[in-house]
């Protein structure tokens, strides 16, 4: 899972949890508000009940009941009750039931709010007040209470949540979309970092540079430092390889001189053995130097295949083998590969020399683009090469054979691989097609 998707999912979950907690908190606040409003309304109704009390022949009576018809409807949802001197007066809505007020002590005018069971086992919100009756009502202390079905409050809270849900859903979508935009903007430098690293790998850039946000800049600086250390190591390797080559050339030249003296003294076989050994050593040194140069130059290397092919054809036409052949070049002049021109000439020259050696009448240079790679091929119309030999050359990078083919193709293959490409040998029927697969780059880089 990508970093962006992980952060987006984590942000979405956080938003949903936060909005769920918000909905719960708003529900609790709304419920508390509704309950306060209900208590305030019941306080008014309780005042109406107390104002309507009168002294009758049988004790306290309610001459002027509250106007709400639910007090007069059995189990109507609103109830009142008065306890005085062991007597209980209650609303018609209580029918044959009574409010089971708790045995608590209230000061004169004190108010308590209770949750009590109702006449039909429903939960009631009950407002209770203790009052001292005037002498005209017989005096003494009475407990008056008004209750309402609490389910109405719960229903109001559920209705509030149902009305709130669509807006919370829209808010969640808006916040998630805003979070995605924020992630896209915030993580854009990482995409740029990946593209810059890709340019480094392709040889289109040499450093990441310092134009990065503060959080990314240390990574870019470390990568640039690593690249600088790598280039320094490559330079040291090139120097060591050059020193090794120069150190070996003098002994090799001495061996060749010794071989010449042996040949002059009639020891032809011994001379040829020394010469073959010295030449093999020289080819090995030249190949390793070629690989070192290619690896060192690949970061900023550029080569134009059309120009290199034209130069090779001009040279090979002056050789005894090339003068008798027909040469064709079909390479677009604007094609550029990520390979130094001298290395490209060496690799392509090895393929061209091999083609000239085996061709009967024709050698063709051709270039085809596929994605970000260029397939640069040299085809001859000679006898071709057995599949087993082709596979062996590609698989083992054969270093030599009697025809001299292996070493040249091996050098070409190693140069291509050092540049991030490869060498492919295919039967052209007739002849052989040797293809260098190299990375393309734009000409203006």
UniProtKB/TrEMBL annotation:
Which cellular compartments is it found in? Membrane
Q: Name one GO biological process term.
A: phosphorelay signal transduction system
Q: Name one Pfam family in it.
A: HATPase_c
Protein keywords: Kinase, Membrane, Phosphoprotein, Transferase, Transmembrane, Transmembrane helix
- Name this polypeptide is given: histidine kinase
UniProt-listed InterPro entries:
HATPase_C_sf, HATPase_dom, His_kinase_dom, Sig_transdc_His_kin-like_C, TCS_sensor_his_kinase
Annotated source species: Gymnodinialimonas phycosphaerae
Membrane-spanning parts: 164-183
Question: Known catalysed reaction(s)?
Answer: ATP + protein L-histidine = ADP + protein N-phospho-L-histidine
State any single GO MF term.
protein histidine kinase activity
Q: What is its EC number?
A: 2.7.13.3
May I have one GO cellular component term? plasma membrane
Against PANTHER family, the record matches this protein to: SENSOR HISTIDINE KINASE TRCS (PTHR45436:SF5), SENSOR HISTIDINE KINASE YKOH (PTHR45436)
Identify the enzyme class: transferase
Annotated ranges, domain Histidine kinase: 243-442
